[in-house]
Write a structure and sequence with these properties.
DNA binding; about 80% helix; 7 helices; Lambda_DNA-bd_dom_sf
Length: about 140
């Protein structure tokens, strides 16, 4: 049995017309009808369209005729679980980006407040005091 025969079987299983199948999968009118009549091989893009549209269909069955037409529920659940994990990771990443952005804004605001509130001479004096304290701390830890 060729893939086109399995497509015909799929259409019957879904209980839809060939034209409805073509429309649902985004194929041109009569493309599947013609392929069925001619027993043509299917293009990769046609197979991808079918599998993208009908997520419950087993790709192995459609391509090779092996296994069952319908995917195992566990297979579908695993795929759904993977998609949910990706969504959670995206949400987490968005939250981290938002936190980083807010942190940057906070630092910019503090810098602006410090510049506006402390006269330049006092800032220099405070910085020198901090440097002196650091040196004292370093010297003390060396002697300890």
């Amino acid at each position: 049995m060729k893939p086109i025969d399995r497509v015909e079987k799929l259409i019957k299983f879904k209980g839809i017309s060939i034209s409805a199948f073509e429309q649902e999968t985004g194929m041109s009118n009569n493309s599947i009808q013609t392929a069925i009549k001619r027993q043509s091989n299917l293009k990769d893009s046609t197979i991808n369209s079918i599998l993208d549209t009908y997520k419950d269909i087993s790709p192995i069955w459609l391509l090779r005729g092996e296994g069952e037409m319908l995917r195992e529920p566990a297979e579908v659940n695993i795929e759904r679980s993977v998609l949910q994990n990706i969504q959670h990771e995206n949400d987490y990443t968005r939250s981290l980006i938002e936190l980083l952005f807010n942190s940057i804004l906070f630092k910019e605001k503090i810098t602006e407040l410090v510049k506006n509130e402390i006269p330049t001479g006092e800032t220099d004096r405070d910085l020198n005091l901090i440097k002196d304290l650091e040196q004292l701390m370093n010297n003390k830890s060396v002697t300890d």
